[in-house]
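Dear V.,

Thank you for sending over the compound details. I've combined the ligand you provided, zinc ion, with the protein sequence from our construct and run the structure prediction for the complex. I'm sharing the raw inputs here so there's no ambiguity about protonation or stereochemistry in the SMILES, which I know was a concern on your side last time.
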Amino acid sequence: MATKLFRMNRSTLVLCEDCLEELAPAPGKWDEDPLQDCSVCGATDEAAQEEMNNISDALQQHWEEDQPDPNENPQDYK
Ligand SMILES: [Zn+2]
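Below is the predicted structure of the protein with zinc ion bound, written out as structure tokens.
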């Protein structure tokens, strides 16, 4: 099962599901934040991070495709 990461609201403290349970009841509001590492044991949600990497790769690729070829001068085609 994938590890779930939770970040404390308005804080940089991040706990995975296990640590959150271990320290419970942890005061404060905890939001699921799958791209963080657990501040206690360093657990990460590998599936979510991999997914995010794939998305940023795709965005990067798309961005590169949208860039004009620097060797191409559109005025040459007039
Ligand atoms: Zn942890």
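A first observation: Residues 1-49 form one domain.

Warm regards,
I. M.
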